[in-house]
Amino acid sequence: MPAIPPPADNPKLAPPEKDTPTFSPDHISVIYVLGGPGAGKGTQCANLVRDYGFKHLSAGDLLRAEQDRPDSQFGNMIKEYIADGKIVPMEVTVQLLENAMTDEINNKQWQSTDKRFLIDGFPRKMDQALKFEESVCPSKFTLFFDCPEDVMQERLIDRGKTSGRADDNAESIKKRFRTFVETSMPVVDYFEKGGKVVKVNAAQGPDVIYEDVKKRMTERGFEMTK
To answer: What global pTM score does this model have?
Structure first.
């Protein structure tokens, strides 16, 4: 597995530039999944994995796993960024995703010729979006779960009672909302201008939301595989 490069502000150790993306969109389908914290992305991703044959990669889960890896040189940095509600440097997140995609593609048990990835909670900043599109794989579109802040806050506080996640508390939740609006909404707006955003009303119940998602997937040429 390739080493994770440190942030670009350390030019001595910056990752090499690539002329073309690692994966071709002719063979790999990537859908970004965005929405504020508590919008229900994980629930809908599980439905899409079950019915459409996607592999689900959560940028947040990959970062949390990396921060807990004993020999990770970025563990403490990731922990501090997450606790502060800030976005981890782009190079780290993009490389973690590329590593995870490579592992899945090389897995002989995944025999489908149509490799499909849902990337959950990514890209959260414009630099992440541009870097991934240029160096890893251009996306098909962004699935955006649009949900009012008060609904998301209620869901997160309820989840925090059992999740054990350090960022499911009132103070971190407020920081995460602010970060999403300031940094992730410009990403949604950017892709929307190019016709590459599918917006779903995520204030409804999960079953109603998924019916809408299935309709939108069909419109974009994705059929169920199960």
So the answer is: 0.83
